[in-house]
Amino acid sequence: MRLVSTMFSSCLCSSAITKTASPVPSLAASSFQPLRRAFVSFSHLSFPRNSVSSGNLKFCTVCASKSDVQSHSFRHEGGESFFRDVLTSMETVYLNRNPTAKAILELVRSVDDEQICYDHLAFRTFGVNGYGIKSIASFFLDYGYTQQEELRLPAKKLKALWFSPPRSSSQNGGSGVNGPWPRVFISELLVDQMSPKTQEIIRKYTGKAGSGNKHAALASSLGSLTWEKPLYSEFQQLAGESEYAAWTLVNGYALNHVTISTHRLKSNLRNIKSLNHFIEQNGFKLNSEGGVLKVSPDGLLMQSSTVADSIPFCFSDGVNESVPCSYIEFAERLVLPQYKNLPENEVQEFHRRDGFEVGNADKIFESTSKEQLTRRA
């Protein structure tokens, strides 16, 4: 059985390029591509889509012809190279902080080493003072991503948007951030709905960060907070009301999770149930909230995730405590009914169930909850 430690031995007190200390370990310059190129803005690309209804939400499939794809091709190779450099840096920070995610990627690669594609990348934000969804979404929109449906999770006081990549980015070959561009899922805490005390804490730190929201992608790729480290008592206040809020306070714009697209694997692990069994056999705990396998009402989107790793954190008052970090998710998207008769070798990503499901997302969010972390221990 493979056992992975969920704790790093040293406290996260590394300095960042901002005025204050970072809550994540500093990374050697050689560990990720330097952010040395200027940002390049791209006009937003739009593509013909067919809507498919599922529950209370609508999901889209792309049915572009070859000429459509060519007309919307991503022509700026330098811009794409920079975009991938940024994603690589985000991924490096994520893997360095989360040994479970790194170990599972290596484990899957040991069985299915042809290509591991990411279904989506996920981020958490504070919906206040410009620090919400738009702060991180602007980077992806500049590179041709398109905003899609909004999801609401009233019980958690959250809303989310997901963004689809340019059609022309769905290239064959390459793994992870060097493979087909993933969807992006960004959520935000509806701060105005929180208690006055919690609002005060969140506004205090985002307010002190000034224009930090304009550098969300940079902060994510460097593993840095754009605000100061909080007091431990403030973290406890947020955790008592919203574990999402507490997570965001100490992790900022760091990748909350990456998601392996299971149906793009070539081995028997392409079946998410087989993958879940394989992961558990190797000693990893999966998020059990609502059952290990989360299935959309239409049965076409199946998701699961590990329990988040924990890392020691040095709070501004000198208190050292363990805090939840990130996790890794798995998603299988089944073929839409109208394409069920297509030969398997002709099925493309746009023939499959697109979008996200509120019920699934609600349970996946629990991967960083105290209940799941305690169960892991």
TrEMBL record:
Entry's EC annotation = 1.13.11.93
Say which enzyme class the record assigns. Answer: oxidoreductase
Q: Which UniProt keywords apply?
A: Dioxygenase, Iron, Oxidoreductase
CDD domains assigned: VOC_like
InterPro entries according to UniProt: HGLS
A GO molecular function assigned to this protein is: dioxygenase activity
Which segment of the chain is annotated as a signal peptide?
A: none
| Segments crossing the lipid bilayer | none
Database matches in Pfam families: HGLS (PF07063)
Q: Which cofactor does the UniProt annotation name? A: Fe(2+)
Protein family (similarity comment): Belongs to the 2-oxoadipate dioxygenase/decarboxylase family.
Its recorded name reads 2-oxoadipate dioxygenase/decarboxylase
Q: Which organism is it from?
A: Herrania umbratica
User: Lineage from the top down?
Assistant: Eukaryota, Viridiplantae, Streptophyta, Embryophyta, Tracheophyta
